């Protein structure tokens, strides 16, 4: 049976090449996510050492993400992504060599992961900003849905592949596979060619014909322009707040308290694996829905999807049989994928291309910066209240926060495409206004 190729891959060849390269990279990342803790343990590290190495990769994201957004709006984004892939390839290759030769140390792995995090901080905003330069505005939803499909599918395939690799060649061999995936992605980016976008001297309204403004603004000035784009659009800052609540309140129920309940009451890691896989399958279905649906008011649909996604804590703490919890987690997986595909697409369609990476950097910063807070507080909260009351309290905070988005006219009424025709789409030229009276 012949599998149909999505139209956006058939018609947008440059995106198709990027999609293949990034798909390999994402799969490699999922393998690395599983392999890295085992790598630390294999060299005699403790649970605290696992946390140290993981945190070493996270901290640079907090420090450098905003800088990554500014630079991604200054120079061609594929160059930043290429450099990031090459750095991450070198980092994972070095870690693999150290592990395979028996010379790895916890401190060395932590340093390597810090370098990995720096490269990641520059890659993420550039990646969001590159897509509108490769795909027409009316195809962005489909392109983001395909990227989301790969992310979701890798949640199911990646850990299984990691288990096979760790058993066959050890954690070092698994990290070598991740290094190879970055090399493949870099090869694709190197052949991608110029992707258009604002020339450096055109950023934020300066043009070669305007010599008084041809000099590039300072770093902080460019950062302020990105923030102005966020705070002047109600749907953007309110959406970011909802995402922050999701990361601080909901995700700890998945990463911390879910495994605790699974160990105490469900029969251990096997039952938790069933729930995680079911969520991944639901997330895949959500990406398929995002690919096919064309809502006239996508932000309103996204808000409902976020409310569904925010029910994960309630589902995990429900006390239902594991198969029921797994089925309900699959439903929340649909909500998660649907929200984030629609959210990414709306940013790419409504935010001027020349400031998109800066806006995206604020989005990534909120997601990354606040999640550790929730992870740290989840344990003490459950110790004080009990696991189930803590989960129910998470739900009581998260679901109303998501539904509050629907109370905002700017969210309910935001159209799929900006009014004003081609002048309002991501590739449009012209100065970024000091204040945007947006939705």
From TrEMBL:
Q: Does the keyword Membrane apply?
A: yes
Protein name per its UniProtKB record: MFS transporter
TM ranges are 20-44, 50-73, 85-104, 234-257, 269-291, 298-316, 322-343, 364-381, 387-408
Lineage: superkingdom: Bacteria
Q: Which UniProt keywords apply?
A: Cell membrane, Membrane, Transmembrane, Transmembrane helix
Instruction: State the membrane topology.
Output: Multi-pass membrane protein
| One Pfam family of this chain | MFS_1
**UniProt region (Disordered), positions on chain:** 418-439
Name its cellular compartments: Cell membrane
- InterPro entries reported in the protein's UniProt record: MFS, MFS_trans_sf
